[in-house]
Amino acid sequence: MVEFEKFIGMASNLKIPQNILNRGQIVFNEFMNPIKILFEQKTMPKDPWSDEQIEFFLQILSNMDTDKDPGASRVGEREARIASKIHLNTSAGFCHGVGRSGFLTAPQPKAPGGSMMYEFANTLARHFLKKFGLPNIKSAVVLPLCTGMSLALCLGALRASIASELLINRNAVLLPQIDHNALLKAMDLVGVEKKIIKGKKIGDAVRIPIEDIRDECDDTCFAIVSLTSFFPPREHDNLKEISKLAKEKNLFHIIINAYGVQSTDWMSLIRSSIDAGRVDIILQSTDKNFLTPVGGALIASPSKETIEKVSQAYAGRASATPVVNFLVSLLSLGINGYQNLLERQQQNRKILEEKMKIFAEKIGERVLDVFNPVAVAMSLETLKNEQITALGGVLYNLRVTGPRVFNPSEDDFGTCCESYPTPYIVMNAAIGATTDDIISAITRLEKAFQQLIQ
């Protein structure tokens, strides 16, 4: 790489006064300094990078890949040939992708820059998670797959590591009830048996007692999948006791932390679970936690070997785009930027609960007593059955996106238990939402009620 701090030396033969060149070097050094620090320290930047710095950094790396070599004789079947320069924009120039066939994190001979970019992404991911709640993890990797497909990859990789003579009789996964199609389909895709432990209504909340999980554990089980973040009334699992059970019964333990990075409470639960027993993989979505486009996931583990197993189980070469999206988010936010987002999320969560409580009291409803650092649920007991059914559509027409409406007379799926009696609506104050989003959503909820009861 050019020694950018000596950049003006290349202009010594120009007829420009030295004092002017020196001034220009100062400005250029300021621009390059975050990039220089990243190469030296390989840690999350404290302060956000500018878009120009991020683009320059990515251009440096992507221009190292062999598809940018004008003198290359490219005779392979896969040479990152593209039909349009638009492809360069959508992939940030990393058309070769990342990894090698059969080993996701292996350096790619045709993509030196892409390999460096991926290593930076994974190194910063590990540093980020350590900084924001999981100091006891050892390794992390960004997967270019959605959360459900990432779960399938993790289960497949862990199951494949079991000795073949034991595997014949161990094909079941303990699953505290999670009413989410993506996760259920992931298990179907891998071909494992799901031993679902039904949720129980305790007060307003839905929980899965550890005793019920223990009762379902037998010699056919090889893993347990638990969760932190979900929609009310389902609360997080008893991670600490589950991790103890996993250690006692020699079960792989995967924690679905889908949008839980934004919660210090959920991250604290995971941290204590790692210390208390066995946790193999913590899986989280990139779009829900890091404000990226949909399509990526981040897995972490207290064991480097476990992350390597998953990386070696990936079939084929991977798209670089979800990885680049993740790296761009981390660089554009920095530690301070993400901390500001977390503080704003906590403030918005309080505002959401306050506004919903005021509205609920006004109409004879109540906010459900369920622990959730992101979402709030309100009862809908004063509405008629057909009004409950219509509420979601009315809100959609009022341009409110994301609420979840549950009607007990319809399918129970989503409540994570049988016969949940109370109709409700769930709204989220997730990371990245603005206070205006929260206030306008409640205002439009009031308007929706007025339309329905007229």
Q: What structural class is derived from the secondary structure elements?
A: alpha/beta
CATH second-level architecture of the largest domain: 3-Layer(aba) Sandwich
CATH topology of the largest domain: Aspartate Aminotransferase, domain 2
> Which sheet architecture does the biggest sheet show?
7 strands, mixed
Percent range of helical residues = 40-55%
Quaternary state reads single chain
Total discrete domains:
3
State the end-to-end CA separation. Answer: 70 Å
Strand content: 5-15%
Element-by-element helix/strand order: HHHHEHHEHEEEHEHEHEHEHHEHEEH
Name the poorly predicted regions: none
CATH class of the largest domain: Alpha Beta
Radius of gyration: 25 Å
Could you please describe the fold and organization of this structure?
This protein has 454 residues and is an alpha/beta fold. The protein folds into three domains: 1-41, no CATH class; 112-334, Aspartate Aminotransferase, domain 2 (3-Layer(aba) Sandwich); 337-453, Aspartate Aminotransferase, domain 1 (Alpha-Beta Complex). The chain has 15 helices and twelve strands. It has a seven-stranded mixed sheet, sandwiched between helices. Helix 5 (147-160) runs parallel beside helix 7 (181-190), helix 13 packs across helix 15 and helix 14 packs across helix 15 (435-453). The model has no long low-confidence stretch (mean pLDDT 92).
